[in-house]
Amino acid sequence: MKDKNMLMIPGPTPVPAQVLQAMAKHPIGHRSGDYSKIQEEVSANLKWLHQTAQDVQMLTVSGTGAMEAGIINFLSRGDRVLVGCNGKFGERWGEVAEAYGLNVERITAEWGKPLDPAAFQEKLAADTEKQIKAVILTHSETSTAVLNDLETINKAVKEHGEALIMVDAVTSMGAISVPIDEWGLDVVASGSQKGFMIPPGLGFVAVSEKAWKAYETANLPRYYLDLGKYRKATAKHTTPFTPPVNLVFGLQVALQMMREEGLEAIFARHQRLTQGTRAAVKALGLSPFAPDDCASPAVTAVLPTGIEAEAIRSTLRNKFDIAMAGGQDHLKGKIFRIGHLGFVCERDILAAIAALEATLQQLGYEGATPGAGVAAAAAVFVG
């Protein structure tokens, strides 16, 4: 049926009708008083979501652009940095850091496994001369559906004293608590098309006072991504460059919806969706790619046996108009990923699991009892 497509990928995520309607309004001048009032409200709500007293900088970029800005504004050429790599996006941040001439040391884990906090602690403790200037890691590694132990790794960074912690929270912000001020996180980047429930095009960077101090002496090249420009403008409820005004309209409404739901309720909903999805996958005789104790709240990666992941995805798309994500790099064709981030509820998961069951039946899969997946998810949701 036309226009019945269902996004069950980790981004872009579904967009509420209220947000779409807000984005359909006629644009206004971004130097007008009316726009400044909207930006003032948006800035206040971004601070609420990020659990910080600092202004959150809003850029017209994707999540990758937000992370690049977070890296280049507070470091200098030749600085030694530790980068956690256990998936596609951790590897990307290492590549970005190297592109700007940073001295990158990677701490790696097998894809599908979490980063070992002890490995960071050991490296940081051994750095008695305080040469390590930053630790860069992905909180929710979307490519493998692994949630890394940000809190414990951050404690090791704090014990070091000198290094900044720079966090890719692109698929964790708005899905799980990231208490920026409480934990003392220095640079936290995210993107609009994930937990924020709006289309791609806006990136967000939260910055600590410690990081702003480092900004004063950092010497990597920057202009459009110079966060100092954004900081001055944001304080005046304006922007240094032309913003995507209609996306900001949508963001205003999305943040209002999030405040109405409440942080704890948002986090609890994502936890329920994660548990229900994983229970359904197991009941169908399929294997979650990531262990239970480090499951991402944004996405569940599934490793099927006896049936091709791409056959599952194509059947879901062609027969049921449901989009699920595939694997990346060496996992392409080996896993598929079910998104449950942002504007997603229990009904969406039940519908997706029911379609997955029908798909498995059509493909001749004999590893599960029909209805077992839906029953397992429902047991989580009504329990």
TrEMBL record:
The keyword Transferase applies. It comes from the Bacteria. The keyword Transferase applies. Residues 10-328 form the Aminotransferase class V domain. Keywords: Aminotransferase, Pyridoxal phosphate, Transferase. InterPro entries: Aminotrans_V_dom (IPR000192), Aminotrans_V_PyrdxlP_BS (IPR020578), PyrdxlP-dep_Trfase (IPR015424), PyrdxlP-dep_Trfase_major (IPR015421), PyrdxlP-dep_Trfase_small (IPR015422), SP_NH2Trfase/AEP_transaminase (IPR024169). One of its GO terms (molecular function) is transaminase activity. Gene3D superfamilies: Aspartate Aminotransferase, domain 1, Type I PLP-dependent aspartate aminotransferase-like (Major domain). Its cofactor is pyridoxal 5'-phosphate. Belongs to the class-V pyridoxal-phosphate-dependent aminotransferase family. This is Alanine--glyoxylate aminotransferase family protein. It comes from Spirulina subsalsa FACHB-351.
